[in-house]
Amino acid sequence: MRRSATVQAPPEEGRGLATARAVLKVLAFLGRHPEGVRATQVAEEVGKSTSTAYYLLASLCEEGFAVHDPHGGRYRLRRDPDLQQDPYRVGDTDEFAELVDGLFRRSHKRSYLGRLEHGAIEIVAVRGRQGMPRLPGLGARITDGAHAVAMGKVVLAWLPPNARRHYVLRGLRSYTPNTTTSPAALMAELDRVRRQGFATEAEEFQEDFCGIAAPILGPRGRFHAVLGLSATRRAYEAEGEQLVGAVVDMAGVSKHMRKTSRFFSTDA
After folding, report:
1. Do residues 157 and 199 make contact, with C-beta atoms less than 8 angstroms apart?
2. Within this chain, do residues 35 and 132 fall inside the same structural domain, yes or no?
3. Does residue 22 sit in the same domain as residue 70?
4. Which of 41, 68, 129, 227 is the most buried (most CB within 10 A)?
5. Residue 258 scores a pLDDT above 50
6. What is the residue-wise DSSP string for 115-167?
């Protein structure tokens, strides 16, 4: 009986096929574990390094095939939103809309609700009187400027360390003289944000605009969304502690915070 010859793909094509097979294996693995998996589990399943597993998972998330829980560190298969509700998706529901409304009523400052989706912060609700200044650039999405706005700092602070480093390695653009562009300084600030439970920024993205934000966490500390406000420099300096208190209280994490006398401490 004649034995058929083995056809080998060219090197570049061979690598592409290997990557495609690895992606299919990851998708199948995610499908068998609806509760979510970690990158280390994926690496063991497909026989690749952990860094390769992170790359494959990040690619699947970018293409919309998978989602990542920033707090728990697990990845899971994205389901059809018409068939299954996404527990990590915080829409403009009555519950969260009330938080934004409540923050606006208490602070009298333009208030925002954001969620992390597809590698960007989606602004899903905004409250403020007509004619009230709105931070330029803080539109429907926050991407590369996350390090320069308070809401972005909160999200970065709750990302896994490897995802945070990935953002920093892309480069930290300077928007104003106050923008933090040192990776080490930003990492230290994000650690502080994570410990104290809120973030602030003073004219880091745009002159005469400042921001305050805090995470909305679930019962087990899982990151769900970010609540924040923007104010002029004058309002920030005059009402800073009260505004921080309003954001923290409305985000529901005030009992975990430090005393207001240390809200603007620069100590790590």
Report:
1. yes
2. no
3. yes
4. 227
5. no
6. EEETTEEEEEEEE--TT----TT-SSEE-TTGGGSHHHHHHHHTS-HHHHHHH
